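Ticket #4471: structure export looks truncated?
Reporter: QA, pipeline team
Priority: medium

Steps to reproduce: submit the single chain below to the structure queue and open the exported record.
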Amino acid sequence: MNAIDTNIWIYSHDTRDPRKQSIAMQLIATTPFALLWQVGCEFVAASKKLASTGFTEAQAWAALTAMQAAANVVLLPEPDLWTEAHSLQGRYSLSFWDALLIGACIRGGVQVLYTEDIGAPRVIDTLKLVNPFLSAAKTFP
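Actual output as written to the record:
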């Protein structure tokens, strides 16, 4: 199972970078994925950056509904994920939010997280981080 980070979802709605938008849309259309609770929350919050392009809050909520409908699984947080995030944060020098996201992916059985952030490409424990905007990552599973 794969997951898609918030930044990829944002690019799929961002008309200011047609190349990244196209790649993000292709990835979303061709990759079965798990939707992480945190990603859905971050997407609605981060979509405010798209206001200058005419992307509204109502569109962000509609996009989140579409994301949920397209997801194979929606991964919800568990209280003991904080302990795992703390461990990941220390071992890999991650931010709190990145450690939570990676911990949720690992617990949820995600093998690949598509992200432009978190130092992708790299591997953290059992999770492979792939930057879909790098030329070597253009072929999606």
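Status: closed, not a bug. The export was complete when the record was re-opened. Leaving a note from the reviewer for reference: The beta strands are 2-4, 33-36, 73-75, 112-114, 122-124, 127-130.
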